[in-house]
Amino acid sequence: MSFGIRLHIWGERACFTRPELKTERFSYDVITPSAARGILEAIHWKPAIRWCVDRIHVLKPVRFESVRRNEVAGKLPAGTVSKGIKSGQIDEVHYFVDQNRQQRASTILRNVGYVIEAHFEFTARADDGDTPGKHLDIFNRRARQGQCFHMPCLGTREFPASFELIESDEQMPSVDDSLCGERDLGFMLHDIDFANGRTPRFYRARMHDGVIDVPPFAEALA
Amino acid sequence: MTAIANRYEFVLLFDVTNGNPNGDPDAGNLPRLDPETNQGLVTDVCLKRKIRNYVALEKEEEAGHAIYMQEKTVLNNQHKKAYDALGIKHEAKKLPKEQAKARELTGWMCNNFFDVRTFGAVMTTEVNSGQVRGPVQLAFASSIDPVVPMEVSITRMAVTNEKDLEKERTMGRKHIIPYGLYRVHGYVSAKLAERTGFSEDDLELLWRSLINMFEHDRSAARGEMSARKLIIFKHDHAMGNAPAHRLFDSVTVTRVEGEADTPARRFQDYAVTIDREAIPAGVSVNERL
């Protein structure tokens, strides 16, 4: 933990979709390590580093809300695009949203706030130029100034995340009283194992006074 | 077309008078409400649809501005002009064929379709790069004050079925909001724009569409909707020069006319102020409306 960071994130709404409830999206109670990693990567990431989430502090009470929206029923088949390129006609490449429509409800979180504690490790693609100090400085500088590669989001892109760096000598934001005590959040997605055919891996999330200790990815259950 | 080199955030204020800005399918098409605060809501996808429709209207004939996610109503079957047949030239790295092909597909889609270039799209390819993340991100819009939807019963002097001929008329319902001023936040990432080729011209078109999208979306259900204010924050740096939330906090909308607890009925009942002192260095503010 020689180069850990702490990032405070918050937002109006969030949706960390449970993989088993994806059609009518249903959010987990709290942010997943994989979503937290995505937020860190939105601020700074290079192929040389890999973010590892160590701890998640939940700051606000868990509250849900339901939103139903018109969504498209399908994705764009790659074949359609190839045909369009070949024929040179873009008139054939279209999607009629009012004919292929699904109304789907999402059960999302309201008013969330978290602190992500994380560090990074080097991947096989790191070279001599990649020192821990360099990447740590870049991340801290960007997070301090509110800079980002793209605006991080709380699960899905319509729920943007505001973020602030918590300096090493700074106090943690206060945790809501309702989160005191022990809570077992059950099995939660840890992250996706991209090296092995994108299989999801899970961990048993337990919250002590708003704090969830995240085990290393290698220890997560496939 | 070179991609934009600056990060942007924007605040759009729009209002509705005696209309339904965005119906809730869960509540029989009542205007969407935030159950906790009774503020009105308009989803991000609702506004994106209007942006697409505006672009389709303005750029009917133009190459590179087709709309992939079409509604029948804006469909025009006129011949589109010829276009650049190939996608963006990527630096020739030794990529597996699959991935190179996927890149070619996404490149071609980005070049030809404005909405793919702006909002992104998901394409079903075996390779992950078949997903395009667009530079433009919109959040939910919510009203400044709580809104109270009204149910208006209306009659029609005709019937649909012959068996109802005796009745002479049918009753219907409309849900309207007497007045609501809505605020929405948006983000434009310069770095993602590089990947889809979202250019300065596209950005200008986006601003135009935000200002004019309600002008071409009149209907019996909508009532009077109009864009009232578009405040754009431009960062000098591609990564940005300030946290977005601080910029958004500098824009406040306050009630000025009438008693504080009485319902607002006009845009003039509100005042929009930008605290220019609070804008950090390296960010310029532009009021487009």
Considering DSSP H and I runs of 4 or more, what fraction of the residues of chain B is helical? 10-25%
Structural class of chain A: alpha+beta
Strand portion of chain A:
35-45%
The structure class of chain B reads alpha+beta
Mean pLDDT of chain A: 92
The separation of the N and C termini of chain A measures 25 Å
Q: Biggest sheet of chain B: strands, sense, closure?
A: 8 strands, antiparallel
Task: Give the total of beta strands of chain B.
Answer: 15
Choose one word for the global shape of chain A.
Answer: globular
- Please describe the biggest sheet of chain A, giving its number of strands, its sense, and whether it closes into a barrel: 8 strands, antiparallel
- Low-confidence regions of chain B: 73-96
The ordered H/E elements of chain B are: EEEEHEHHEEEEEEHHEHEEE
Q: Point out poorly predicted stretches of chain A.
A: none
User: How many β strands of chain A by DSSP?
Assistant: 10
* Individual helix count of chain A: 3
**What is the number of helices of chain B?**
6
Quaternary structure state of the chains depicted: heterodimer
What spatial form of chain B do the alpha-carbon principal axes imply? flat
Describe it for me?
The complex is a heterodimer of chains A (222) and B (289). By secondary structure, chain A is of the alpha+beta class. Chain A has two domains: 4-70 and 107-219, Alpha-Beta Plaits; 73-102, no CATH class. Chain A contains three helices and ten strands. Chain A has helices at 33-43, 78-87, 132-145, and strands at 4-14, 49-58, 64-72, 76-77, 95-96, 101-122, 162-165, 182-193, 199-208, 211-213. In chain A, strands 1, 2, 3, 6, 7, 8, 9 and 10 form an eight-stranded antiparallel beta sheet that branches. In chain A, a hairpin with a 5-residue loop joins strand 8 and strand 9. Chain A is globular, with a radius of gyration of 20 Å. The model of chain A has no long low-confidence stretch (mean pLDDT 92). Chain B is α+β, with helices and mostly antiparallel strands. Chain B has one domain (8-151, 174-288). Chain B has helices spanning 44-58, 97-112, 114-119, 190-196, 200-212, 244-249, and strands at residues 8-19, 23-24, 30-31, 39-42, 69-70, 120-124, 131-133, 136-138, 141-146, 150-156, 170-188, 224-235, 251-255, 270-274, 283-287. In chain B, strands 1, 4, 8, 9, 10, 11, 12 and 15 form an eight-stranded antiparallel beta sheet that branches. A two-stranded antiparallel sheet of chain B has the order 2-3. In chain B, strands 6-7 form a two-stranded antiparallel sheet. In chain B, a hairpin with a 6-residue loop joins strand 6 (120-124) and strand 7 (131-133). In chain B, helix 1 packs across helix 5. The radius of gyration of chain B is 22 Å and the shape is flat. Mean pLDDT of chain B is 86; it is low at 73-96. Classes of the chains: A alpha+beta (222), B alpha+beta (289). Chains A and B meet through strand 3, strand 4, helix 2, strand 5 and strand 6 of A and helix 1, strand 5, helix 2, strand 6 and helix 6 of B. Strand 5 (95-96) of chain A pairs parallel with strand 5 of chain B.
